[in-house]
């Protein structure tokens, strides 16, 4: 059976590669005759074994979005394991029994249920009693069988994970270092619990079984190792394991310790389980742990270093977080020089002082932490003012923990969302200024107003030394800032964050004033309300924004940094004036949906995110789909247009909307 499964995996890989080359890359790597031959062979093996693996070209798993993830109680509680970091305890645990030593994978635990050979249900561990139902997402995991040969009820537990190589690939595709995911476990957890399983599929989640809960009528010879081999015969991948007597446990642990250096699947330790099923079950359990298994956690690597600075980092909530800066040390293969101290209570408990000798480690081999302060001088002053705005900093006590807050409601750190909008793609388009990077720069006092962003070159030497930066990334950021000095009035208006002013309304306002900002700033609410499609409420908000003395002062400072380029006369006819569109699905005649949106807005139309009574047209190339937007449009009598219908409408020809 295992040999046939390997054949099926190889055939699936070859067929998928051929399809991708033909349909996505416009090239052929095998003839149609060869493709059909391999396809027929795969189908024959699937019928012979009764197993269909995930991703098989013989089946299509559709993408589907859900409103929420329902919760469900597990048939039996999922207990945590007792833990140790001492090898001697593992030897003592084994005693006179044979044990299985296997990886303790670091992902999200999932329970799968199969009925009549089909995947019936997938539920996350949750709190051990109640988990979330993620069946829709499990169907697009990379390596679970969608159909198995066993026809009874099968329940098994395993770990959903994202490999390090896949994690790094996903992060490489995210240009901004600060927007990247912190570790594979967090990425996996978010991927498994998505409401749209297309996102899950694109994250390449894998599943490794580690326990068989139920498979009535199968004789496993009272051995857990036989359960693992049987699961492999059904098409599952299981955690890697080694059988060991007490005398062999230390050698088995050493084998895993050496392998983890290059192992691609995240693991935070090992698990020992008695191979004798009946013996393990006879031991029962404590209130918290089963007695048939124990977890072994790797010893945390610690390094001694010297505390050089406490950086006080304000956030959008007003919280001012202490961050320890220390001499760089190597931990778990990376260089570390900073660690969050979390709050004043922890800082005081450690009795931190500049120049103290501290030991640091990575919690779960990931997050830098201070383990101990060896000198405990306590020579550390708590700031009285916020480093971002200079406003008063006050100490608050919540849940028995002291924290430092900025009391200034106008603190620039609290305006992070407005700064993030200002640098976004549809506004000033400054690449390299993510929300996380902006927070760091604001915390250091480099940015207080929009205009300050155009003077970050004054802090070039400091930025180069910041975490996540270097010579190249800093140079790229400063060049992007220089490029942003030449912009357009619609981009500027949108970037100011005036309530209810999106890109479409920013264009309307620009056309109204003839691309003369001075005229717009002096326009009354009544004059603005005369703009077709704007309305009294939005007009009042625009007028109020430009009338506010603080806004006027900030805008004057910003204009001194910018050159507003006047566009040529609008070449596009305003054929969509007063009409609202909704776009869904993929597009073919435009590079992406953003380009289609811009096309509509250039012609005076608006693009909304959801179908409502105010919608005039829904654009969806799959006009016959049963999607929620199509259904809503039909209920409201709104035409559903393909791109061809839409382009005909744009040219003035009668469109052929689908009913």
Main traits of this protein?
globular, 26 strands, OB fold (Dihydrolipoamide Acetyltransferase, E2P), 6 domains, Helix Hairpins, D-amino Acid Aminotransferase, Chain A, domain 1, 659 residues, 7-stranded antiparallel beta sheet, 24 helices, 5-stranded mixed beta sheet, alpha+beta
Describe the structure.
This protein is α+β, with helices and mostly antiparallel strands and 659 residues long. The chain has 6 domains: 52 residues, Helix Hairpins (Orthogonal Bundle); 223 residues, DNA ligase/mRNA capping enzyme (D-amino Acid Aminotransferase, Chain A, domain 1); 105 residues, Beta Barrel (OB fold (Dihydrolipoamide Acetyltransferase, E2P)), CATH 2.40.50; 73 residues, Orthogonal Bundle (DNA polymerase, domain 1); 76 residues, DNA polymerase, domain 1, CATH 1.10.150; 72 residues, BRCT domain (Rossmann fold), CATH 3.40.50. The chain is built from 24 helices and 26 strands. The strands form 7 sheets. Strands 14, 15, 16, 17, 18, 19 and 20 form a 7-stranded antiparallel β-sheet that branches. A 5-stranded mixed β-sheet has the order 3-13-12-4-11. α22 links the parallel β23 and β24. The longest helix is centred in the first third of the chain and has 23 residues. The chain is globular and about 90 Å long.
Topology:
Layout: H1 2-24, H2 32-49, E1 52-53, E2 71-73, E3 83-84, H3 87-94, E4 99-105, E5 108-115, E6 118-124, E7 130-132, H4 135-138, E8 145-147, E9 154-161, H5 164-172, H6 184-192, H7 197-202, E10 206-215, H8 224-233, E11 241-244, H9 249-259, E12 267-274, H10 277-282, E13 293-297, E14 302-314, E15 319-331, E16 334-340, H11 344-350, E17 357-363, E18 367-373, E19 393-398, E20 401-406, H12 416-422, H13 435-443, H14 460-464, H15 471-484, E21 486-487, H16 489-495, H17 503-512, H18 517-521, H19 525-529, H20 536-547, H21 549-559, E22 563-564, E23 580-583, H22 593-602, E24 606-608, E25 617-619, H23 628-636, E26 640-641, H24 643-651
Parallel strand pairs: 3-13, 21-22, 23-24, 23-25, 25-26
Antiparallel strand pairs: 1-8, 2-7, 4-11, 4-12, 5-6, 5-9, 9-10, 12-13, 14-15, 14-17, 15-16, 15-20, 17-18, 19-20
Helix pairs in contact: 1-2, 12-13, 16-17
């Amino acid at each position: 059976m295992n040999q046939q499964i390997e054949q099926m995996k190889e055939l699936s890989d070859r067929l998928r590669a051929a399809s991708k080359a033909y349909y996505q890359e416009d090239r052929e790597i095998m003839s149609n005759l060869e493709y059909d031959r391999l396809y027929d062979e795969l189908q024959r093996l699937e019928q012979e074994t009764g197993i269909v693996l995930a991703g098989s070209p013989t089946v299509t798993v559709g993408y589907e979005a859900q409103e929420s993830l329902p919760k469900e109680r597990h048939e039996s509680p999922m207990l945590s394991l007792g833990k140790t970091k001492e090898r001697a305890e593992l030897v003592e645990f084994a005693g006179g029994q044979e044990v299985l030593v296997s990886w303790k994978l670091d992902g999200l635990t999932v329970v799968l249920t199969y009925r009549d050979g089909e995947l019936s249900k997938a539920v996350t561990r949750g709190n051990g009693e109640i988990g979330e139902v993620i069946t829709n997402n499990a169907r697009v995991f990379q390596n679970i069988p969608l159909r198995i040969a066993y026809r009874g009820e099968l329940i098994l537990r395993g770990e959903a994970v994202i490999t390090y190589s896949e994690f790094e690939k996903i992060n490489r595709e995210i240009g901004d270092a600060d927007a990247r995911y912190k570790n594979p476990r967090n990425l996996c957890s978010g991927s498994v619990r998505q409401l749209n399983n297309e996102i899950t599929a694109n994250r390449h989640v894998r599943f490794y079984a580690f326990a068989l809960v139920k498979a009535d009528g199968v004789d496993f010879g009272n051995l857990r190792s036989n359960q693992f081999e049987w699961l492999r015969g059904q098409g599952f991948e299981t955690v890697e394991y080694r059988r060991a007597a007490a005398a062999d446990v230390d050698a088995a642990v050493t084998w895993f310790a050496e392998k983890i250096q290059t192992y691609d699947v995240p693991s935070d330790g090992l698990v020992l389980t008695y191979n004798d099923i009946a013996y393990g079950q006879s031991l029962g359990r404590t209130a918290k742990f089963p007695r048939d298994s124990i977890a072994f956690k790797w010893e945390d690597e610690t390094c001694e270093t010297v505390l050089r600075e406490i950086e006080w980092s304000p956030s959008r909530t007003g919280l001012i977080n202490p961050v320890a800066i220390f001499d760089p040390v190597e931990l778990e293969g990376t260089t570390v020089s900073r660690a969050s101290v979390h709050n004043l209570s922890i800082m005081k408990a450690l009795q931190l002082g500049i120049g103290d000798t501290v030991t640091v480690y990575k919690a779960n081999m990931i997050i830098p932490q201070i383990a101990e302060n060896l000198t405990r001088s306590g020579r550390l002053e708590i700031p009285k003012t916020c480093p971002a705005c200079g406003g008063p900093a006050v100490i608050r006590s919540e849940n028995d923990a002291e924290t430092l807050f900025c009391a200034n409601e106008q603190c620039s750190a609290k305006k992070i969302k407005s700064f993030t909008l200002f640098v976004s793609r549809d506004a000033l388009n400054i690449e390299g200024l993510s929300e996380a990077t902006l927070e760091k720069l604001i915390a250091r006092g480099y940015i207080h107003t929009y205009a300050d962003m155009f003077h970050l070159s004054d802090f070039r030497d400091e930025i180069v030394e910041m975490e996540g930066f270097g010579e190249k990334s800093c140079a790229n950021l400063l060049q992007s800032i220089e490029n942003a000095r030449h912009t357009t009035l619609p981009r500027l208006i949108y970037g100011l964050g005036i309530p209810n002013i999106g890109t479409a309304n920013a264009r309307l306002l620009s056309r109204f004033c003839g691309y003369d900002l001075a005229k717009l700033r002096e326009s009354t609410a009544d004059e603005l309300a005369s703009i077709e499609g704007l309305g009294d409420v939005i007009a009042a908000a625009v007028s109020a924004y430009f009338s506010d003395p603080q806004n006027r002062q900030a805008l004057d400072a910003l204009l001194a940094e910018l050159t507003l380029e006047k566009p040529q006369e609008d070449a596009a006819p305003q054929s969509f004036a007063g009409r609202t569109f909704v776009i869904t699905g993929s597009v073919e005649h435009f590079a992406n949906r953003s380009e289609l949106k811009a096309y509509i807005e250039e012609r005076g139309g608006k693009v909304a995110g959801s179908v409502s009574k105010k919608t005039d047209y829904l654009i969806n190339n799959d006009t016959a789909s049963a999607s929620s937007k199509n259904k809503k449009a039909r209920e409201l009598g709104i035409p559903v247009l393909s791109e061809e219908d839409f382009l005909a409408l744009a040219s003035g020809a009668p469109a052929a909307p689908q009913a």
